[in-house]
Design brief:
It is built from nine helices and 14 strands. By secondary structure, it is an alpha+beta fold. The strands form three sheets. A six-stranded mixed beta sheet has the order 3-4-2-1-14-13. A six-stranded mixed beta sheet has the order 5-6-7-8-12-9. Strands 10-11 form a two-stranded antiparallel sheet. Strand 6 and strand 7 form a beta hairpin. Helix 5 packs parallel to helix 7. The protein is globular and about 45 Å long.
Length: 254
C-alpha cells in the first residue's frame, strides 16, 4: 500500500491548484491531509467528484482552523477522530483509520505560535499524543503521518542557529518531545533511510524561500519500530506544489 501525507494549508484553496493531478501523481492508497481549514460539509464539497476514494474528516470547532482528513481506496475497519482528550480534540487534529495490519494516524500537531505563547499547550499535547500512539501500538503497528511542527535536528532546517529556542518548531522543548516519541518505539522513516541527507518539506511563502530552498522538515512518516521491515521507499515530494508544505510518503508491505 502506498501511504501518503500532505499538509494542504487550506483544502478549498488547494483543489484549485491542480490537486487532482498531484493526487494522480502520488497515487496513494491511503492519504492523510492536514490543515484542511474546513468543516466536514466543506471538505466533502471541495472533494466532490473525486473518484476511487472514500473520505473521512475531522474538523475543529473553530471554523476555518486546523482540521484533518483521510482519503482511502480501501474501506477501513473503523475510523476515529481525536485522542480522547477534550481540550485537544476540539481542534480536529487527529484522525485514525484502522486497517487489518496497522493503524493509520494522520496528525496536525499544534504550533507553539508567535512568541512561543502556546508552548505549554504544545508540551502537554506532545505527552498526550505519545501516550495515544503507544496505546494503539499495543494493538497493532502504527503508521503516523503528518505535520509534526518540529525540526528534530539541525539538519532538518536551513538556519538552525538563528532559530534555536526562538522560533516555533525548533525549541528544545519541542525537540525533546519528538525525541521522547521516537524513544517510545517509533521510527522517523525518512531520516532512518537517509541519515545524512538534507531535504525539507515546508518553506515560508516569504522571500522566495522555496526557490532558495530555505526550508524546514516538518512532515513525517513515523512507524512502529517493530514494523520497520514492512516499510519501503520513504520519500519527500519536493516537486509537488500547491501548499507551503510538500507531500511525504512510503510504501507499506502488507
Amino acid at each position: 500500500m502506498r501511504l501518503t501525507s500532505w499538509n494542504v494549508n487550506g483544502l478549498r484553496a488547494i483543489v484549485t491548484k491542480d490537486f487532482e493531478q498531484s493526487l494522480a501523481c502520488l497515487a496513494p492508497d491511503v492519504m492523510g491531509l492536514q490543515e484542511t481549514k474546513a468543516q466536514e460539509d466543506q471538505v466533502r464539497a471541495a472533494l466532490f467528484g473525486l473518484d476511487g476514494y472514500e473520505l473521512f474528516s475531522s474538523s475543529a470547532e473553530k471554523k476555518g482552523y486546523s482540521g484533518t482528513a483521510i482519503l482511502t481506496r480501501t474501506t477501513p475497519m473503523s475510523v476515529q477522530a481525536g485522542i480522547g482528550v477534550p481540550d485537544f480534540d476540539q481542534e480536529g487534529r487527529v484522525l485514525r483509520a484502522e486497517f487489518p495490519s496497522f493503524h493509520f494516524v494522520t496528525v496536525y500537531t499544534p504550533n507553539s505560535s508567535s512568541g512561543l505563547k502556546r508552548l505549554p499547550f504544545r508540551k502537554a499535547w506532545d505527552a498526550a499524543f505519545r501516550d495515544y500512539l503507544s496505546e494503539l501500538d499495543k494493538d497493532k503497528p502504527v503508521v503516523c503521518c503528518g505535520d509534526l511542527n518540529v525540526a528534530h535536528a539541525p539538519i532538518d532546517l536551513a538556519r538552525p542557529e538563528a532559530n534555536y529556542n526562538k522560533t516555533p518548531g525548533y525549541t528544545q522543548d519541542e525537540i525533546d518531545g519528538m525525541t521522547a516519541l521516537l524513544e517510545a518505539g517509533f521510527v522517523d522513516t525518512w531520516r532512518q533511510a537517509h541519515p545524512g541527507k538534507v531535504k525539507y518539506s515546508w518553506w515560508s511563502y516569504r522571500g522566495g524561500a522555496r526557490e532558495k530552498n530555505v526550508g524546514w522538515r516538518l512532515d513525517y512518516m513515523l512507524v512502529s519500530s517493530r514494523a520497520l521491515a514492512q516499510v519501503d521507499f520513504p520519500e519527500i515530494h519536493t516537486d509537488i506544489h500547491g501548499s507551503d508544505h510538500c507531500p511525504v510518503s512510503l510504501t507499506w508491505r502488507i
